[in-house]
What does this fold into?
Amino acid sequence: MQDDKDIKLTIAPTPAEESAVQENLASATVEDKIDKDLAENAQEATDSHDPTAKTLEDIMHQEAHESETQPPSNFSLSRTLGGAILAHVIQSQIKLVLLITLFLIIYITCRYQCQQKMVEIDRMEQQLTAIRYKATVVTSFLTEKSRESNIMDMLEQKGDSTLQIPKDPPYKINVPE
It folds into this structure.
């Protein structure tokens, strides 16, 4: 049974590995100290019941938001062409981008409707002109047909001889009141 036996294995790290391990330990101890300080501050805040004191969650939440709102510090060509900077600007100004997009849609819609109305107005003006020409033609035709000489010619063609042109001028009859 090998479970009862302890096996000791010794591995000798290289000097580069030792320095990397020491740096990791140093950074880990700094992080541990920060975590301890935050935990102590949070404990003190809960012990004192101070409503303005920040908890560990509040501090972490604030740090997370601060890191999101900071602009990118390195403006390299690859970041610019890759769209990272543009994406950051759009993400930070998303409400403004949506508002501008809404205004553009409204502008395009109104312009389209205006053009449609202008086309309809032009079509109706052409129809109105055509109808006026027809009305002028019909009026002139009616005026020609209603002349006294044309009416007499029409009566003679039909053979109606009871109607004649009066030879005496019309006169006025005065009726006493």
Notes: The mean pLDDT is 78. The chain has six helices and no strands.
